Amino acid sequence: MNTHSFTRRTFLRGVGVSMALPWMESVTVWGDQPKDSKPSSEPPVRLAVLFSGNGFHSKEWWARGEGKQMEFGKVLSPIAEFREKTLFIRGLYNQEALKGNIHSSQTGNLLSGASLAPGGEIRSGTSIDQLLAQRYGSSTKVPSLVLGCEKSNPSVHKNYSMLYSSHISWSSPTTPTPLEVYPALAFDRLFKDEVSKGDTSVLDAVLADAKALRRQVSTLDQRKLDEYLDSVRDVEQRIENAGKKGELQGWRPTLTEPNIPRPADGIPQDIAEHMRLMCDILVLGFQTDTTRLCTLKLNNDHSSLRFPNLGVDYMIHHLLSHSDTADWLKVNQFFLQQLAYIAKKMSAVQEGSRTLLDNSMLLYCSSMMTGGHDATQLPVVLLGGAGGRLQGGRVLDYKEKPERQMCRLYLSMMDKMGVRPKQFGDATQALEEI
Question: What is the enclosing helix (H) or strand (E) of 160?
Fold first, then answer.
């Protein structure tokens, strides 16, 4: 039974398909009743959390200055053009993450600050994205998107489940939210009523409805609708080609070539294409208000990914992180390029007087500062405007302050989305400067 309410939402519809529309000047899509004399209300605030494992280059993760004069270390250089929309936060940490001093014990509570159960038991805490999904999930077709580019690892490492290393989103203290690593299925979840692969294009199914709508909107909205449909078609076509390249990623198999036909699992073998598809799906989900919450785990902590696209395929990500080489910096920048790509696409989407980026928060973080397991302070960058509620172009340093819980940041972010719990994790007060 579908419990979501869409009575005041605007969709393109076809057989087995429903696609929410982007913001348009002549169409009410954010929940308002149609009024001839009044414009639509403010677009909603969206939250995306991007994660990459194993920390960063110890000498090149920094920022200083403010506004147009803000400077970044080499790791953050890909986002330099967004400096005025960037909040660099230093010194926050999760006290509970210091107990095990290994990857699993530092990752499973990154978005909750909860205490993790060791041994065979699985217990963390409900993460910020899922707490918000409980509040806003019924307002959108997809309560939250939980995306990844590396499959979860169910093994145990030093008395902690590696599921902690594989998941940052938790629906409950005992339930890591299922991680979608197949771009096709993530795409289907946004645009199809039933998540299954079919022969009919999403766009083909809604084409008649789109043509009818086009006759009813302004010239500007006609161009916006055409651009939107073109972007959906582009992602759809790229998904169809996913997995056809022969560049294997991740762990090294015992055979140089498979001895059985490759399963049609839909995971691109090119890690750059995999990440880019997931970034596009995130933007589409926000752009259409099909979801307002997304976590994108670019890789696992203790990751086994390799990067032949960068000429760095001689060592897995985890082992490479225990160095400060030029190749490690190159991999760091590759991850930040995904954040820059998302920010650029979102800044190109106009929503009334603001852009999609202005109406969103993009949190980028890792569960340790460096590959040496230093979790005494966490690398944190926040991009976007949260609907005019977040001021970028700043560096905030909490390293020497007594109350520097990461969960204080989460309380601040939830406040900007209208959710104000008295406590979250180990924090009872938001960060006033945010």
Answer: strand 160-161
Asked if 282 and 361 count as a contact pair (C-beta separation under 8 A), the reply is no
Asked whether 156 and 100 are in contact (CB, 8 A), the reply is: no
Reduced to 3 DSSP states, what percent helix, strand and coil does the chain have, rounded to the nearest 5?
35, 15, 50
3-class SS of residue 321: coil
Give which of 100, 126, 48, 118 is closest to 375, Cα–Cα: 100
Classify strands 354-355 and 350-351 as parallel, antiparallel or unpaired.
antiparallel
Q: What angle do helix axes 219-240 and 183-191 make, rounded to 10 degrees?
A: 150
pLDDT at 364: 98
Residue-by-residue DSSP string for 387-423: GGT---SEEEE-TT-S--BHHHHHHHHHHTTT---S-
Q: What is the dihedral of CA 389, 395, 396, 397, to 10 degrees?
A: 170
Concatenated DSSP letters for 52-85? -SS---TTT--EES-GGG-EE-GGGGGGGGGGGG
Strand partners, 427: 424
Q: Write down the residue that tokens 């700043």 correspond to.
A: 394
CA 187-189-194 angle, to 5 degrees, is 125
Please give the C-alpha separations between residue 340 and each of 50, 176, 234, 301, 357, in angstroms, as whole numbers.
11, 28, 20, 21, 11
Sign of the dihedral defined by the CA atoms of residues 376, 332, 276, 385, in that order: positive
Low-confidence ranges of the chain (pLDDT < 50): 1-9, 32-40, 196-199, 246-265
Q: Please name the residue that has the structure tokens 């920022």.
A: 63
- Count CB-CB contacts under 10 A for residue 211: 10
Residues in the chain: 434
Domains along the sequence of the chain with CATH? 45-191+264-415 (3.40.720)
Whether the CB-CB separation of 265 and 243 falls below 8 Å is answered with yes
CA distance 128 to 409: 10
pTM (2 decimals)?
Answer: 0.84
Q: What is the pLDDT of residue 6?
A: 39
Q: What was the pLDDT predicted at 2?
A: 41
What local confidence, expressed as pLDDT, does residue 157 receive?
52
